Amino acid sequence: MPTVSSEELAAAAGVNSAKLRKDFSYLGSYGTRGVGYDVEYLVYQISRELGLTQDWPVVIVGIGNLGAALANYGGFASRGFRVAALIDADPQMAGKPVAGMPVQHTDELERIIQDNGVSIGVIATPAGAAQQVCDRLVAAGVTSILNFAPTVLTVPDGVDVRKVDLSIELQILAFHEQRKAGEEAADTMPAVAARKQPADKGPDGDVPAVMPA
Ligand SMILES: NC(=O)c1ccc[n+]([C@@H]2O[C@H](COP(=O)([O-])OP(=O)(O)OC[C@H]3O[C@@H](n4cnc5c(N)ncnc54)[C@H](O)[C@@H]3O)[C@@H](O)[C@H]2O)c1
């Protein structure tokens, strides 16, 4: 039986081992002194708490470049997310196989959601169609939306929306790049370097507390 100690896990996660043991105790997981945690059982307990021990049928709406790439991504199944249907408004796409599944027309959306008991919908349509798709998904019973379209969705209470925007991630990296370049320039200019105060850093020592406008 492979085991792992709280010290090993704490070192790997970069946290304090006493805190880690306390957190695990909330899962009902208590290691054995001198032995540690049974790895397989711990993985099960964490998965159960994260809702990953059950199968989640997911629909993807908008099977263009992004929707097809998501449909082809093998990583969902291993985390318990089963792509139940691929849906697109383009009649030319209906019946065409993508990732081994026939694309279904949006006319079928409500039936597909109900037949498969789908509670999670992924939106990969153009921005202009996203709210209408979202409304239909919600009316059909979907209560969680993963939105890739660059638009803010309005949903009723009880519906969760997560937005994925890779350009924001790139903007964050660009911001850090710009700061790094600024710091390098300052290091090569003694007068600027002398003016550089530790207060340049935000409270977390990483980014300034207030982003430059
Ligand atoms: N969040 C990110 O980081 C990120 C990255 C890339 C693309 N995107 C966004 O993802 C979306 C899709 O991008 P893409 O490159 O795959 O576009 P695409 O044009 O290749 O595909 C869009 C698909 O949506 C379908 N569609 C249009 N209206 C629809 C409707 N009402 N119902 C169902 N299907 C509909 C179209 O027929 C098409 O197949 C765009 O909004 C794009 O801006 C986001």
Write a compact overview of the structure shown.
With 213 residues, this protein is of the alpha/beta class. It has three domains: 3-49, Arc Repressor Mutant, subunit A (Orthogonal Bundle), CATH 1.10.10; 56-164, Rossmann fold (3-Layer(aba) Sandwich); 167-200.
Overview of this structure, please?
This is Redox-sensing transcriptional repressor Rex. NAD(+) binds at residues 62-67. Residues 51-152 form the CoA-binding domain. There is one protein chain. This protein has helices spanning 6-13, 17-26, 39-49, 65-72, 109-116, 127-140, 166-188, 190-195; strands at 3-4, 37-38, 56-61, 81-88, 97-98, 101-105, 120-123, 144-147, 160-163. Strand 3 (56-61), helix 4 (65-72) and strand 4 (81-88) form a beta-alpha-beta unit. The termini are far apart. It folds into 3 domains: 3-49, Winged helix-like DNA-binding domain superfamily/Winged helix DNA-binding domain (Arc Repressor Mutant, subunit A); 56-164, NAD(P)-binding Rossmann-like Domain (Rossmann fold, 3-Layer(aba) Sandwich), CATH 3.40.50.720; 167-200. It is α/β, with parallel strands linked by helices. The strands form 2 sheets. The chain has a 7-stranded mixed sheet. Strands 1-2 form a two-stranded antiparallel sheet. The structure holds nicotinamide-adenine-dinucleotide. Nicotinamide-adenine-dinucleotide binds at residues 61-67, 88-90, 106, 124-127, 129, 132-133, 148-150, 164-166.
